[in-house]
Queue: 4 jobs
Job 1
Amino acid sequence: MSKEDESLHKKLWRWETVSLAILVLGMASLGLIVGINYVWEEEIQDFIVVDAATDLRNDLTSFHLWFEEYINGDDTIDPEKNRELFVRVKKLARALLTGGKTQSGFVLRPLDDPQLREKAAALNTLLDSLEDRGVVRLREKSVSRSGSPNDQAFDKIFGEIISLATEIEDSMEKDIVRSMHQFQRLYLVILVVWAVIISGTTVGVGALSQRRRRSIHALRESQEMFQSLVNSTEDSIYLVDAECNYLFVNKRHLNRLGLTDSSLTGRNYEDFHTPEETAEFRKRIDRVISTRESAQYEHQSLRDGRHFLQTFSPVMDPDGRISAVTVVSKNISERRQMENDLRALSLTDELTGLYNRRGFFTLAAQQLKIANRMNKKLCLLLADLDDLKVINDTFGHHEGDSALVETANILRESFRESDIIARIGGDEFVVMPIEMTDDRAAMILERLNQGFEKGNEKNRLRYRISISTGITMFDPAMPAAIEEMLKQADDAMYEQKRLKKLGQGQPRNGLPQDEPS
């Protein structure tokens, strides 16, 4: 073999080797793209499950609110429409186990994760129990008001269903975040593969140029799909390094910051946030990097007051080192507002701002459980505004409302913020001080009486405000239900009223006094 033939043979061998390597790399990259498309189809189901769980929670919350209003006598509520809303909730819950369509028209496949299926099965069982309990409450509407055993059981089942639906939603959202991280790493691999291919073609492999162009087009389509995914979400998604410099920002977050392009990339978090927000953000980034684990935090923006659920997740390089942190910020302002509104509607007295009867029974039951568990005593004070009817008849109901509000204000000033203070009837108030002993009861009553004396002197009303009180103690050695404690305090209070009426020279509430000089 001549030297020229040997040289040609070596060139052909190198060309064939390079061509084969490029072919293998190209096929591998295309395989990755096909795999990503398949995984993406699977991840769409995660978004559909989140959508279904969110709709389930929202519809069930609306049903619960309308049902309570209907039970409490609101005749404007259409029970048939509310029933249809509950049927829709049960349909969504069944779809999590058997498959079906969501309210948005998406096809929902049955959950395949054993733990999530177990939660979905428990959710369906609880919905059946809620329906049964609701039927009983409708049948016994006249006696099944707020605070009744049926009402408490109904609310407990409702809370457990909301909790399960939230757990399913949070679990799927975590899967979505993890998939985004996987997609990012896969795209980095694809970019490296095509860098090798392009380098090979520049050496002289002209025969593969057409395949190279087709592969680049496929890569661009994949990148556009990824960009479309990240930019179409309603959540803010951004990537920062250990120094809190922005590495990537999606369009949603750019819009939140009032920017129209990607000029944010490369700049620092502190350039757009207050020192307090920046300090807290750095702590969270450092914690994720040190623990190498994802973490979630609730955050209220000082810019617009909205609430967000932020998920911080580490991004690992091929060597296992953390190269960046991904932040997914989900707007939960509407959910937080809805929760606050529902809590206020169900637990707060509209006139005084104190807890109402339901709020008192809910919180007091929890304190009794704690007292039982820790073997501690609790005090319950029942107070009745004296002669409210006389005030209403003499000065008008508006003045009676003012007397109730003033009584509530004096109770707030006389007790600690952590104590449970509620208005449980027209002129009845109840207080459950936290960690109060027998020897402190007399001191509390004295301070309460002084509060009313000061209030009467300060406001200089045409009548005096006073209360009658009754006190009872909860002893873990001889536990009593809240209703029994209220009965005991009520008996003590009416004994005090009787003694007041027998007393001499004691001014009674609601009677006009001498005008101040």
Note: The chain has three domains: 6-232, 233-336, 348-502.
Job 2
Amino acid sequence: MDNVFLRNKISAMTLDEKIGLTLSIIVEGTTFIPAVEGYLKDYNCGGIRVVPAEVYKQRMIINKALRDQGQEHLEKIYIPEQGATSPSVTLRQYAETLGRYHDMAVSRRSGIPLRVIFDQEGGFSRDLTFGGTPIFPKQMGLTAGGDPEMAYETGKALGRIARAMGINMIHSPILDVNVNPDNPEIYTRAFSDSAEVVAEYALAMARGMKEQGLIATGKHFPGRGDSDGDAHFEIPIIDISRDTLWNRELYPYRVLIEKNMLPAIMTAHSLYPAVDDENVASLSKKLLQGVLREKMGFNGVITTDAIGMKGVTLKHDVVSACEVALDAGSDMILLRMATADPVGPLIPQIINRIRDAVEQGRISESEMDGKVYRILESYYNAGLFNTGGASAETIDQVVADKAIQSVCAEANARCVHVYRDQDGLLPLPREQRALVIEQSFPRTYCPNDGHWYSGLFYDKLSAYSNQLSFIQTKVKATAEQEALIEQHLDDFDLVIMTNWYYRGGLDSNNDVVRKIAGRGKKLIVVGNTPYEGQCIPKEAGTVIVQFGVTPLSIATVADIIFGQAHPRSIWPVQSNC
């Protein structure tokens, strides 16, 4: 049924306001950035995708009046030191920063609330890392817990955390069915390699999010689980039949759409030749209009993945890609680049290009109004017009809530699995002498505060034993670090080492595992995926898998190694890999 309130809102909007509403811009760092005022007030951008832990890449403050006069050289310049990182702040301080953006947005002529978006997939893959944020396992870790109710409780908890921070949209749940063990990008971000299991757990998580007024986004349509490429760096080709696509990849979407649990869907920058052999899904009318809208009956919001990823930019410039994406059927565009290139200066070009497309009839006014209606309807259904993005709870209250703490602790306790113990090493006696090799992750993934820091695994193990030595490496050890390990290896009969894998080129320490095993050393490997090629080589006789590296799951691993806890997980994929 048509919503009169929303129709009245739309009829009062200018074309530029409608265009701006479709754009989600990246806002990095933990402190207020003045450049955002230009994006929100001058260009009416409808949303911000927050990346608080990211290195600053902002380059220029956009000023529409100066640009319209051809005087962009008079704009203020904002160029932080190369490699600058955002300062450590409390969650309350960051919530206050987001509150300033909300106030700025609702003070605009349209008065439309600001959508504030984050990723909080669990483990290393999340935006809120600092200040004692409750960190949950990856989605596959929730499946390892063996109970969809935990996914529901996690969705509720994430909703409460987000809304207390001033965040109202999340790019989850992930609906990919990870059938390819060599998938470099999805792996444990998926619930499972079973379409039915993915649908069951995703439905539960989305229900929890919806109850808390958090706009859920299923991704990556139509499915990136059967891929051996990463769309951040290439154009993955998902060469499967139409029947497989419908019955496997699209099954979770079909279930959640039928249950009305998907306010939004994010598209994949991948090619599906069985449906469209020319355009990646994000730019494909055949997939977005023909399959998602017409065949599957989805009437919610369609958003692109980051438009600056190589899956798009290898064939299209960013400005052209934005028009093609909207024409293909997307309602929102995520303006994030895959490089250090600033997206800010492109925003006026993008808006001009889309305005021209509407005025020239390449995108009809009714199409644009339909996009705006779907976006505003998602706000309306989540209560944003009533709350303006504010929550009755403060973030300090939510983090201190024993119910939130209990759910997070239980999820992390149930996401650790002893995959094999061929040598019968577990549990270790406390007097066992051993070398601990632990990877150090960049601050973007590990906040390096009192709650979570590189070296935490060694500290948790040392609570049980004072017989442990320690060598730290990068995620993938350097030649110098490998030489250091080699130098000291003969002094130990047993090695305990993390072999956590992360996408995007960080990789893992598989080579070090194989070299140590080749020396005949007893070896306990702690990985974070169920896949041999990523982090649990067959040469390792004792393997523990934690499906999501978090402070609490690190503590659980230490407890299991020294016999103070027993694994409570199930194996979350259909095959032993």
Note: Residues 4-397 form a domain with the TIM Barrel fold (CATH 3.20.20.300).
Job 3
Amino acid sequence: MTVASGKVIFRRQGVAIVRNAIGLVLLLLLAIAVWGAATAKAENAAVQSDTDIVANLGMLQGDEEGLTPAYLAKPTMRIQAAIMYLRLKGLEQAALAYKGTDNFEDASQVGDSNKTIMAYLKAHPELGWAGTGNNKFDPLAVISAQQYYKVMLEALGYKQDADFAYDDVIAFAGKLGLHRAAGAASFHNADIATATVEALQTAVKGGKKLAETLAEAGSLDAAKAAALTYPRIELQTSVTASAYGTFMTDSKGMSLYFFAKDPADPNACQAACLANWPVFYAEQLQVPAALNAVSFGVLTRADGTKQTTYNGWPLYYFVKDKAPGDVNGEASGKVWYLAKPYSVTFAAYGTLGNFLVDGSGRTLYYFDKDLSGVSACSGQCLTNWPAFYAETPNVPAGLAASDFGTLIRPDGTPQTTYRGFPLYYFAKDTKAGMTTGQAVNNVWYVIDPAKFHGAMSMPMPATEPKPTDQPQPAATGSAHTVYMENYAFSESVITVSVGDTVTFTNKDEDAMHNAVAVDGSFSTRLLAAGESATITLTKAGEYDYYCEPHKPFMKAKIIVK
């Protein structure tokens, strides 16, 4: 919506772009291009964002350029909320055809069509738009989430002071399932898109869903409204652990995950791995306005099954998540992470361990000739090693956003730094999953966050030495084995004797496990698939223990007699 020469203009554009910072939008578009080359079997998905849906239905029409990021980032004004109310009630055309001339005193602040809207509202006080007092409407005032949710409630047939009190708007709306934009600190046009989709999917008081009601009245194209019935990906915060921030879930609130080994091979999770991490797939999909519909695709896996992808990353569930908001898979084995629009994240494949990649899985590098805050790469070097830049340091668990910064290069362009050191791509890495820049000229390296401190060459060994457990007393008793499989200890309780040994063996191919006594009396290292660690129990007692990465659900007990 643009105000020009006193006229507020709304114009429809069929394809909408989500509200994002321009830098992040460009990053996501780069992600799609990179993964398009990397996943030859990827397909387009039938996906519509909230902005696509409301644009196609004519509910939100934008300014002269349509639903641009700039438009969607603008605060919502009172006149726009009034127009949205009339559209949701199927009354917009009647309002535009109104011929009455009595109007609010401040109608001159808007253009002719919106003056007609205001006159119609003044002539129909039963609609609840009587103005702000003193015969004024205040059409350009910015509204809040509470005010827009009140608009939607009244469009659904609920009346203030009869069905709800104004102070309870958000809570009352939540009981009806209206909540997706209710937490917006400042309400913007992108929030209108998300909230309006919610309203259309909600039943009118005592009747059918609003979209059905409007379609039957001829105010809505029923065929285009079909997208309102698609399965949905939500952005929400865990009900049990808000520290995880905002992440993707399915429409029931079950968390979705990325697998760090997928950039090199999107079929890396197979067999027992897939039993623990089932794929997420929806043939048709709706997504929030904050996500770009073109970021989603479909991967046909090697076995012929299909899987939804985001920025090329296949999406998974975790079988140990039992309730909406559970995030038990987060950082599992240091290779599974909650699905988010990360700007930087981890990959893990080959012999390199965990290392930094961009949001599309493309490898990031460190130049050993750089100093903290200074890039020594320019000219042809920069052609071969393009600078990486992400405006927002959105990172997964295990990375600290505070470790990322920005330096300004001599030509004025920004470059993202990690712990002060510039980050680069390698031009010969033509797709996600490639690491051909590793150890080039013994000065270019991938970055393992656990080891990286900068200002020194850091070649990765072909195989990393495995840490050893602390020496154990010589075994004098019986030997016992506990397997770590399917994210559980094979024996929930075992009884042994003083001097017996217990060997823990990890059989989960997709996760690392350990065994840690609650009282601190023993602790093994993290074990990869096929690895074992042995402890000797020298004192009688009961020892509750757990796997540190999966502590919420992976627990057991040893009784020593």
Note: The chain has four domains: 2-26+48-227, 234-341, 345-446, 479-560.
Job 4
Amino acid sequence: MLQKVLIANRGEIAVRVIRTCREMGIATVAVYSELDRDALHVRLADEAYALGGQTAAESYLNTAVILEVITRSGADSVHPGYGFFSENTDFARAITEMGVAFIGPPPSAIEVMGDKISSRLAAEKAGVHGVPGRSQALTSHQEVVDFGNEFGWPIAIKAAYGGGGRGMKVVETPEEAEAAFESAQRESLNYFGRGECYVERYLTWPRHIEMQILADTHGNTLWLGERDCSPQRRHQKLVEESPATNFPDEIRRAMGEAAVRVSQACGYVNAGTVEFLYQDGEFFFLEMNTRLQVEHPITEWVTGLDLVEWQLRIASGEAIDFGQDDVLYNGHAIEVRINAEDSSGGRFVPSPGTLTRFDQPAGPGVRLDAGYAVGDTVSQYYDNLIAKLAVWAPDRERARRRLLRAIEETVIEGVATTLPADVVILTDEAFINGTHSTNWVETTLDFSSIAPPDAPSVSSEASLIRQEVTAEVSGRRVAVAVWLPEANDDPKRLSGATKPRRQHHPSIAGSGSGMVSAPMQGTIIKVNVEVGQSVEVGDTIVILEAMKMENSVRAERAGTVSAINVTAGDGVSTGDVVAVIA
């Protein structure tokens, strides 16, 4: 059995892995950025090591530093979680070449399935067909236009080395292709370290159904049931459930067997997920996620299996000690993701800040996997998932009602969350009847009843500064770094950001305002206009990145751009005026 696991991740998934390791008597090593030095996963781990830096690229995607920490800590294995390096072939290969166990599939399987293009080809060889598309990387937006003109609009541009909706853009017309292609490349590069993208048809009313796979090194590959992840916004999941409702048993078995064939075709080992789109009685291979999924708790609820435990056991060389016929399903489980987002009016914009209150739900059949506690800061630099709330009940309707009760008990202050939107989803007739689709949230649901949140709290990221001090430890003189409150008498002192932020302006939101203000804290990725340019209502003025999501800041009135206050790379706060329209 493994002795010491380094978790190359952060947030709730790092906490999740640490807890199972603790139960199994396995020591844990956390890594952290400057902004995560007091994070929950750091507090819970047996050891913790600083990576330096603030952004993901400077910290959790810094291969050299992580490899150094593996050596320093003496870890004999690495769990990548999801996101970051979890589907990166080079990282997995570097780990295994050190003689350290990678708790996931072999690099060769990641290479095939981590690349969505080669995964399509591998699935086709296994007799499992995908959504019609082109199985090669795009080189220009003109290829997007050509594909759409040939096969029909809309079409989807997708990150070849990613998942979770990151780097995915739906293109409705040829005129949108160039901007969508550039945006998909940027998001993919920023989140996964690779910018390659491909194109495929965009189905208009599908359901997103995925199969959980578990495979060992002894030739055993099993499917552990499906999860319906159809309620999505920005192609990212909001609500997941298992089993899928209104899903025929013959399709379930055929999809499970197809998932096994796809897994075996690439020599897959450990836990993974094969994703499909299901529409009009047919299913299409979408992609394989060569890692643990965010929504794995609902599979654990209905099967009684601890997937993280099995990841660790398989990585230790153990064989799965049960067969396909032994996998039993009990009851129904539903999960909602609690993201730091303002969902009022269906906006779903990032809402970074510090949690000033976090009342957690309890009671029968309730599970909360959280990566934050009161006083922790949800940073603009990372994914905005605060926690996952999952419930189990004997049937779907009781699970739905239990989840609504648990949401009612959950109180989070300091940031806006998606919980109000989850209530709208769970109480809509389409969800209750199981007639929803992946497009349903953004095209059909009415979120007008969700009131805008109070002003967000000021992030503690800007309140502490790093100082070098000398201390004595057991009589030995050492230099250490400490983080102390920033002095208030120096208004020019920077908060530690790579670039100074613009002077903060009051928010001047409102219909028809000529002041174009940032709706959230973030970084300017692109300025789309110049002084003197005429713009119409709805035109994109700047593109703002926050929490690994690109957001278009649009004009609220027509006119001429009279001032631009930002350039690409600038950090802005909520309410900062980025441009003025006269």
Note: The radius of gyration is 24 Å.
